[in-house]
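To the wet lab folks,

You asked to see what we're planning to order before we commit. Fair enough. Below is the target structure as tokens, and below that is the sequence we designed to fit it. If anything looks off to you, flag it before the synthesis order goes out.
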């Protein structure tokens, strides 16, 4: 983790070589701000992106390396539109949770196909192995960066909002009391009735199971790439630093680990004036 710290803090190093494995879409907007700042501070930054990138604009501030993919932009657009449509349809619990879960798995598998294509590209993997990177900065929502970091035996930092099944706290062994911290798909607030707390506890018991299903393709690929059985916890708990894109004071009260840094303000880096 020391190499990650030297890369991210100004004045502590003469510059390192950082591989960035982003997630497409809106996740890239705030990560791009960090990548540009790291480049300005003298670090050699290489962004690894698919040839068909969805909602990702690049600049000249850093080097971009692309890898071939089999999906078309239309296929990715359609997968995301189906995902949005499910979220805009009102259903009673638990039908709403089941529908959102199925839609989330579908959109994940559609976009994760690009990660599979990365590991099929021997030319890209050869370049990454020979480039001598010091560390990896990645958004782990699709797990591709975490798998690649372990494949290249490099330290890595997460730049993220959170995992769908509370994995960002469970893997780091942070407590997350079910009595007042609502789980995803429960649609509860922190002020729950007794039966809502029972519902919250039941969802908690199922979290790892449904997360294993959600990330099933990622677990299968990581086991093939790393040549061993891999769990979700194995993939994420060795992250050197967790850069969390939300504000501690707006979240539910809980202890966190020393390598977790809250950077919620980064989401407001590109601000626009309010309309009059």
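Sequence we intend to order:
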């Amino acid at each position: 983790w020391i190499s990650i710290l030297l890369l991210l803090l100004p004045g502590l190093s003469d510059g390192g070589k950082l591989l960035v494995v982003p997630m497409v879409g809106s996740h890239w907007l705030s990560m791009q701000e960090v990548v540009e700042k790291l480049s300005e501070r003298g670090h050699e930054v290489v962004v690894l992106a698919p040839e068909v990138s969805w909602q990702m604009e690049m600049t000249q501030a850093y080097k971009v390396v692309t890898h071939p993919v089999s999906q078309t932009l239309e296929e990715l657009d359609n997968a995301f539109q189906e995902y949005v449509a499910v979220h805009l349809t009102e259903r009673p619990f638990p039908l709403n949770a089941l529908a959102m879960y199925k839609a989330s798995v579908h959109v994940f598998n559609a976009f994760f196909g690009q990660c599979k294509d990365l590991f099929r590209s021997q030319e890209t993997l050869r370049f990454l192995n020979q480039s001598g990177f010091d560390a990896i900065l990645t958004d782990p929502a699709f797990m591709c960066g975490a798998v690649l970091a372990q494949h290249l035996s490099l330290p890595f930092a997460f730049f993220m909002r959170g995992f769908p099944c509370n994995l960002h706290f469970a893997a780091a062994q942070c407590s997350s009391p079910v009595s007042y911290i609502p789980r995803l798909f429960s649609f509860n607030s922190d002020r729950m009735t007794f039966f809502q707390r029972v519902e919250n506890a039941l969802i908690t018991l199922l979290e790892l199971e449904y997360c294993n299903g959600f990330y099933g393709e990622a677990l299968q690929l990581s086991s093939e790439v790393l040549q061993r059985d891999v769990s979700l916890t194995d993939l994420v708990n060795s992250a050197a630093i967790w850069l969390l894109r939300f504000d501690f004071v707006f979240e539910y009260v809980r202890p966190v680990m020393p390598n977790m840094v809250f950077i919620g303000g980064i989401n407001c880096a590109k601000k626009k004036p309010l309309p009059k």
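Structural context that might help your review: The CA atoms of residues 46 and 63 lie 5 Å apart. The beta strands are 17-21, 44-50, 63-67, 135-138, 156-160, 241-244, 260-262.

Thanks,
Computational group
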